[in-house]
Amino acid sequence: MSMSSLSSVGRRAAGAVRMPAAAWVQGGWMRREEAIMGTSISVELWSEDPSAGNAAMDLVIGEMHRIDRGMSPHKPDSELSRINREAAVRPVPLSEEMFVLLARSLEFSRRSEGAFDITFAGAGRLYDYRERIRPTDAALAQACAAVGHQYLELDAAARSVRFARDGLRIDLGGFAKGHAVDNAAAILARRGIRHAFISAGGDSRVIGDRRGRPWTIGVRDPRRPGEIVALLPLEDAAVSTSGDYERYFDTPDGARCHHILDPRTGKSPDSVRSVTIIAPDGLTSEALSKCLFVMGVERGLRFVESHAGVDAWWSTRRGRCTTRPDCSPPARSRGSDTRTASDSRSLNSPIRGPG
Length: 355
Hints:
Layout: E1 6-9, E2 17-19, E3 23-26, E4 29-36, E5 39-46, H1 50-71, H2 79-86, E6 92-93, H3 96-111, H4 121-124, H5 137-144, E7 152-155, E8 160-163, H6 176-190, E9 196-200, E10 203-207, E11 215-220, E12 228-234, E13 237-243, E14 248-250, E15 256-258, E16 272-279, H7 282-295, H8 297-305, E17 311-316, E18 320-322, E19 338-341
Antiparallel strand pairs: 1-11, 1-19, 2-3, 3-4, 4-5, 5-9, 6-8, 7-8, 9-10, 10-13, 11-12, 13-16, 14-15, 16-17, 17-18
Helix pairs in contact: 1-6, 6-7, 7-8
């Protein structure tokens, strides 16, 4: 679910033919894009058979809609909304999928010592990025009193959840899109797709390579729109970026209020500008991108070392740091085939501050 935005760099065949349902065939490459989950969802894959490729993309888009229906905090009939309405009053029965996700969230919260916490929503809802409104210290302190993963009580036998604190709310924005791209990758694998790129805002999965060469992911410069600061070659991996440059506003005193909040304070960390995580799966990469943004570089480096197969790239106020030895600086100019996906930018929240 970065210092950056991500770009998948790859060669596009000339003479692409427009197909129904917003799909393009480029030789054997097919692509579809749609606005779901408040962001841009895209899938690109290689298929020898256009009808089979279209059917696979239909399943991916359908899965994205299904996850959005169940996990959106903005849909009153979603499972997440029902939990937030009822769990402070009584235990709420959960779907197996939701129970597993909440259990994983608690695992990340404990291991990160609270740097990742889906109960931040009680404080997060006080910010209005369109209207450039931040809560008063008093309002934030009151909201933060109901923030804490220890107040989220799961009952495995009953497969239910209960909130042990009035005012507690949860939000799955920290890893729902990572979960979605994981499910999409599994769908494509079952359909025999061996080369694909799936993106949900700042969270992506790549399947295989790009037919003989790695997929190349560009790490965006968080202060220079359109500029790429590093290229990451990837195969069979997930990558997520969290950054302070998509949903934010700058205050008169020079502070930047952005959508990534430290759950313990309810405020935006200011030492990091973006974090990009490479991991075996999207749920892990998205959750860790939030963890490491809040932790900062020093704590984050130690945390990454405890996760096998995970690498990180930070852009901070003081410079850049990475655990990835094979990243390379980009060429001076990006070709016309470069595709960019932003850090989980909400299509419903287009307001961006200067800079």
